[in-house]
Write a structure and sequence with these properties.
Elements lengths: L1 H12 L7 H19 L13 H4 L4 H10 L15 H13 L4
Helix pairs in contact: 4-5
Length: about 100
């Protein structure tokens, strides 16, 4: 129930324009270099789990966005909230769910 409420609030506030082209490139670079350092340069997994479509497709977008922004306590996954907005994290999630190649 908690995730449902978070999802409803999140998605109602997330209906905005996607990041501009420069920010999209910055986010792609962040994914490739910062995320790739733990999730593997091909995003197939490493210290962190795979970020490929088959590993993510059954997880709710709101859960994935929350994980990106807040990190995962007790793991090496840091919070990325200081570096991106909820809308930018959602954009990354949507791109990852379409294809691992951004």
């Amino acid at each position: 129930m908690k995730y449902l409420i978070v999802a409803l609030v999140f998605f109602s506030s997330a209906i905005t324009a996607e990041p501009d082209q420069q920010r999209q490139q910055e986010l792609r670079n962040m994914l490739a270099h910062d995320c790739g350092s733990c999730h593997g340069l091909t995003l197939k997994g490493g210290l962190g789990p795979s970020l490929l479509v088959d590993a993510l497709e059954n997880k709710p977008d709101a859960f994935l966005v929350h994980t990106i922004l807040q990190g995962r306590k007790g793991t090496a996954m840091p919070p990325w909230k200081p570096f991106m907005t909820e809308q930018e994290a959602l954009w990354l999630v949507q791109k990852l769910l379409k294809s691992p190649k951004l």
